[in-house]
Batch of 2 targets.
Target 1
Amino acid sequence: MMQDKHYLMIPGPTPVPPAVAAAMSRPMIGHRTDDFAAMHKRIVERLRVVFQTGNDIFILTNSGTGGMEAAVANTVSPGDRVLALVTGNFGERFARIAREYGAEVDEVHFGWGNCVDLKAVEEKLSSARYKVVLATQNETSTGVVNDIAGIGALVGKTSALLLVDGISGVGGIEIKMDEWNVDVLVTASQKALMLPPGLAMVAVSPKAWEVVAGNKSPRFYLSLPAAKKACEKWNTAYTPAVSLFAGLDAALEMMMAEGMDNVYARHMLMARATRAAVRALGLEQLAPEEAASPVVTAVKSPAGVDGDDIRKVLRKEYGVTFAGGQGILKGKIFRIAHMGFADKMDVIIAISALEMALARIGQPVDLGSGVRAAQKVFLGGNE
Amino acid sequence: MMQDKHYLMIPGPTPVPPAVAAAMSRPMIGHRTDDFAAMHKRIVERLRVVFQTGNDIFILTNSGTGGMEAAVANTVSPGDRVLALVTGNFGERFARIAREYGAEVDEVHFGWGNCVDLKAVEEKLSSARYKVVLATQNETSTGVVNDIAGIGALVGKTSALLLVDGISGVGGIEIKMDEWNVDVLVTASQKALMLPPGLAMVAVSPKAWEVVAGNKSPRFYLSLPAAKKACEKWNTAYTPAVSLFAGLDAALEMMMAEGMDNVYARHMLMARATRAAVRALGLEQLAPEEAASPVVTAVKSPAGVDGDDIRKVLRKEYGVTFAGGQGILKGKIFRIAHMGFADKMDVIIAISALEMALARIGQPVDLGSGVRAAQKVFLGGNE
């Protein structure tokens, strides 16, 4: 395999565009300067377009999990009742963080590969008074996208706050924070936003602020009131990851130039082509079609085959990296990301490499049939 | 002023060497890969040389304050008695974090510009039983370096843990974690380690682990037990800032090639030259000579002059950025960093620009006299 010919197709970190890498390589600047403040302001204004919100958005220097913890630490106090809507690994993590902060967590698990059932949410919400509801927009571990609009419509009728982990979705899957009643929306840099890991973005609704301001859990580095105070002058409470901010500025510039509608359509097209190819190869996707993620496709390993063996061949022979299964799905699925700095040819690479890897491990495969199915979607696709 | 001719001389973020910028621009890799694990292991082994320790070292994706909070959240529970040795802004911050976690904090403030008085520490330690002692190695806000060896010798005789904020010192000022009885040592990427901000390093002694394992404060993203478990396979508990890790790997490679003794000698030489130049210009340094920092020199503004006015001229006319005063020292001092990717010519630039800026604002100045004093130190210096 040729040196440096690598194709990273995991659901984060995702490949970094050259323009973003160049921006991050600019000479360092101080973070208490007018130049930094101007960049910070521009970034937040553009993130508001992505989040479809007029709310405060804070950029924290930590990875997505730190953003999830910021959402919890600033809204949950010991003894609070929390409803956790769980569809996989990251939903479980959100619930675990709430328990760490002393919440009484009602965890409703919809099963790995399924999406949140709105009827169950409605029943739960009418059965008890929750302070906070936790949901995952895109469950990366299963390639399932949840109906945040539907969940938000239900939670919005109650006094509960809706906290959404949008880490692997935001920027690749449309979200309307304000219209959908999302109170705290969390995302991170290394997914659809096309950056290396290291930044989390946390947006906060006015309804959430009423709770955040007086919340009793300890919080210092992840304090949203501290972030808000600093942000009044486009400052940050603590030293920001300056080079990642510069990269984010460049990435958002690219996204604005493409137009968010086009960004979302590109992701949906790649996902449709990937699913068509998977079907053509006689493989089965994990998620139901109606809840299949636009940014990552989870595929069941053929009977008797360990998905990790397919991944090893892909990486070693073709330089292609897929993600494996997490938790109970380890070895049983592999996941193909089409997220961020990715377009049609990346799908072609993924599928053709998959075809060859299947052949290499002795699986029956009609070489080129998956690629052809993807091509048909692209040729007839809604570009 | 020519475009892109900037000289960043603040005590973090510091300039990034070209080799480090290049390493950070390498294509993204997954963080659950053998390549990442090998890099992670190499980084920790080299950090052990810098920290002079055999202890566990964890690299957290957040800025230094997050590292300070990790130190506190994993060792302090509500009601614990904490002794905070404060010599400026960052000592105050450490104490504030401990209070946020419910500690009863005895805050001993030695005054802005002074260092910790060991006699006072000895008295305090004999007067009460503390669970934790907080100290700052290099108080960035005043350009004062504290005697961690002396503090550690005293604290080591008690059951208390010594938590040291080494954020602006480690890598530029020698520290011997094990020999000096430091139990938790925190540093960050954007100072003497020559990286952009975004990483904190936290080292933990066996004595500290006994407390950390069962500590009762909420901690998830900043959990040291979670970091330890992941680190067994050179993994990280949560998604790491991959590009900053790659940069850290390259920066440590540079430091190992130079040799840590040479790194420390270079910083001390720059500091001596800066102080000689400041004196030759008739200006006064804030710190007493015996506690003057090797990595940042705080200089009192001339009588009747606002230090921020000098800084404005420096930045606008010469592209040189010094730091201002913080807290009660705002406007009263300016701070010249000689930290990280800095050598003799950076001192010459700083001093000659300072001479011209003083002339510009109408202060009497013997042009070239500061530069000459620095040159003499370099020519007679202990290289």
Target 2
Amino acid sequence: MEAASALATKALDGNRYALARLISLVEDDSGDARAALRAIYPHTGHAHIIGVTGAPGTGKSTLVNELAKALRAQTTTVGIVAVDPSSPFTGGAMLGDRVRMRDLAGDPGIFIRSMATRGSLGGLARATSDVVKLLDAVGFAVILVETVGAGQAEVDIARTAHTTIVIEAPGMGDEVQALKAGLMEIADVLVVNKADRPGAARTARALELVINLNTTRSQTGDNAWQPPIVQTIALDGTGVAEVLEATAAHRKHLITTGMWARREQVRVETELYNILQQELLGRVIAQAGEEQMQDWVARIVAREVDVYTAVGTIIGK
Amino acid sequence: MEAASALATKALDGNRYALARLISLVEDDSGDARAALRAIYPHTGHAHIIGVTGAPGTGKSTLVNELAKALRAQTTTVGIVAVDPSSPFTGGAMLGDRVRMRDLAGDPGIFIRSMATRGSLGGLARATSDVVKLLDAVGFAVILVETVGAGQAEVDIARTAHTTIVIEAPGMGDEVQALKAGLMEIADVLVVNKADRPGAARTARALELVINLNTTRSQTGDNAWQPPIVQTIALDGTGVAEVLEATAAHRKHLITTGMWARREQVRVETELYNILQQELLGRVIAQAGEEQMQDWVARIVAREVDVYTAVGTIIGK
């Protein structure tokens, strides 16, 4: 097997096969992958990372595909990372890849990767962030990170983006889903997709009302940006150009206000703390031994000791 | 202010005001709260913890209220913990409490608490788990933990339950939402609520198909349980008794197969590791100092060093 550092050199030279192999190493969190991530890291920081999130059924994947096609028409290179929390049982990620590939395959200016939930949630957020770094380093100008976005986990992943697009669709029940899921605060661009369906105007008005309230109440500089609401019909491309204009305007806003740098800092801090936690736990378990840890679990289950007392004893008061 | 240990004694004696005060301390993760949690922990382990989860718009809160009323009619005591990821802006948690209280207030056999997302996700899961322990210790026989359930985070919270109810509703778009959100694996009881709406039978059939496939493929003892599908109309109480029968049957199944103990072990292990992580990170930050940590963040942002190298240096290779 090729060493990760050799793969990194090839990937930076534009070799897509090496990139795909590296991504697999990163997903498996192999020790070798870290050497590669170290090598590529100085090349990162140039891409515009755009999170795209929304409840199932909003037409998110179709919109992401159309955004990618429109960007390619402008000769902008595009990486797509689709984070799919579907179970391995339903095999959503793999199917999604194949459907997409039919549409966008054979173009070296685009790269698509689906990532399914495996193991811990923290693991998925970390792998997603590392895959974005790889795509950034090898030169993709725009990286679209697609998440289902109905839970805090997906919100956290979307937060690593510079610009977050939140998608709504009319007729998904009585409530505006984004409101319920707490997505309004992270939305930089709001899209009402399936705008040809009844209720689209009502959904847009409901979103506008909330944005206006939000902007009035807000006192931070970040929220000086008023999220535009764009109506789209992703299936025939209507409104897709307007969404791209909105994301470009948001990027400009971030840079001129200094928010670009501030968001980068928050992202790095979160990542640093998450990785620290995982490493520290790994060491404590290695030190105490699996058997000793299972013994603590058994004692807590038996109500001989509570979890906080156990933690205090394991790592010393 | 009263000491947490004194509050714990009063709460164990049935004082609801002391219980509410303790819950607030636990939510704030005050050092004092840990002493109280230690004191009450030996009294835990008797409640049947039931997670109730489903996408927004499925009528989840209404069903939880009806389940609580039906349990009270059997003189079973009920605690409700509603985990609400709504933003503080929309104030969902507080409003929900008031609406519920109108229906269920004045009955000392019921206790309702909403918990909104604040700070980190890990913090919410931890606080939810501790609040459930308090309700368990003071003697509530059934504890209903309600989460929005569309993301991995809510799934993790639901996983602390002995029995998980997943709610669907017809007409929420073309797909079965639970499938998309990866909830099928954690479902012990499936509810198709709003069964008077068109499409309810179709939704139930779709769920049944997946369950049959799942059961056939499965090889573990856990999945020998075939999740029943119950159609309900929570608004008028239809099917609520059947849901309670299903949860009671599941509890019996868990105990006779030994799964009750196995689930408890997994829950304790997860909690132990999460708290260890949080404590270890807190110590490293305290040791290095906030300033030093911010310096690392700045160097990573400047691409002088990558995050894995930084972590290796901070905690020693």
